[in-house]
Amino acid sequence: MRVLVVEDHEELALTVAAGLRREGMAVDVVLDGPGALERASVHHYDVIVLDRDLPGLHGDEVCRSLAASGHPARMLMLTAAGTIDDRVAGLGAGADDYLPKPFAFAELVARIRALARRAQQALPTVLVRGDLRLDPATRIATRNGHRLPLSPKEFAVLELLLAAQGAVVSAEQLLERCWDEFADPFTQTVKVTVSRLRRKLGDPPLIETVPQAGYRI
């Protein structure tokens, strides 16, 4: 899952981003409204965590612009103002959910995951393929009943491949959805991660390489 955190309080933004990365998410950070629009125009995000009171462009305007452009990300709006009018204004601007500050980090994570699931309504809560089972909520993947010791990136790649339901996922798509903006597109990062994932999944092999196209389960 790839998340954009838009928050003008830099220390809070970096703290939230670090916590979300520990939860296995790929996270980018921007500190103002114009930066949010620029970043969202370049990358595909599953969820955008958007502070309402932003410099340069108010969070409501960022939200309206993204909604009008048809950006696929679900938007979770944050604000220090927790009145009903504030919540109504934020949701009216196009936000999918609303979380007042201060918030519990565990609730933030739960809301982000809920929004990501809502964006993919056709997918089951638990992804299953043969004897392979992956639960995004608990971050547990098993094969033949045995828990797999996956790194956050390996888990993210496996989740995306399973969510594709047999369709081919290109290396570029994996890099875009499972890594942040600092990933070097010219490295062998995806290939190496898929290779490690194959070893951990064991036999019989589950991940197929489709020449000149990508990978599929």
UniProtKB/TrEMBL annotation:
<dbReference type="Pfam" id="PF00072">
    <property type="entry name" value="Response_reg"/>
</dbReference>
<dbReference type="GO" id="GO:0000976">
    <property type="term" value="F:transcription cis-regulatory region binding"/>
</dbReference>
<dbReference type="InterPro" id="IPR011006">
    <property type="entry name" value="CheY-like_superfamily"/>
</dbReference>
<dbReference type="InterPro" id="IPR036388">
    <property type="entry name" value="WH-like_DNA-bd_sf"/>
</dbReference>
<feature type="domain" description="Response regulatory">
    <location>
        <begin position="2"/>
        <end position="116"/>
    </location>
</feature>
<dbReference type="GO" id="GO:0032993">
    <property type="term" value="C:protein-DNA complex"/>
</dbReference>
<dbReference type="InterPro" id="IPR039420">
    <property type="entry name" value="WalR-like"/>
</dbReference>
<dbReference type="GO" id="GO:0000156">
    <property type="term" value="F:phosphorelay response regulator activity"/>
</dbReference>
<dbReference type="Pfam" id="PF00486">
    <property type="entry name" value="Trans_reg_C"/>
</dbReference>
<dbReference type="GO" id="GO:0006355">
    <property type="term" value="P:regulation of DNA-templated transcription"/>
</dbReference>
<protein>
    <submittedName>
        <fullName>DNA-binding response regulator</fullName>
    </submittedName>
</protein>
<feature type="domain" description="OmpR/PhoB-type">
    <location>
        <begin position="124"/>
        <end position="217"/>
    </location>
</feature>
<feature type="DNA-binding region" description="OmpR/PhoB-type">
    <location>
        <begin position="124"/>
        <end position="217"/>
    </location>
</feature>
<dbReference type="InterPro" id="IPR001867">
    <property type="entry name" value="OmpR/PhoB-type_DNA-bd"/>
</dbReference>
<keyword id="KW-0597">Phosphoprotein</keyword>
<feature type="modified residue" description="4-aspartylphosphate">
    <location>
        <position position="51"/>
    </location>
</feature>
<keyword id="KW-0238">DNA-binding</keyword>
<dbReference type="InterPro" id="IPR001789">
    <property type="entry name" value="Sig_transdc_resp-reg_receiver"/>
</dbReference>
<dbReference type="GO" id="GO:0005829">
    <property type="term" value="C:cytosol"/>
</dbReference>
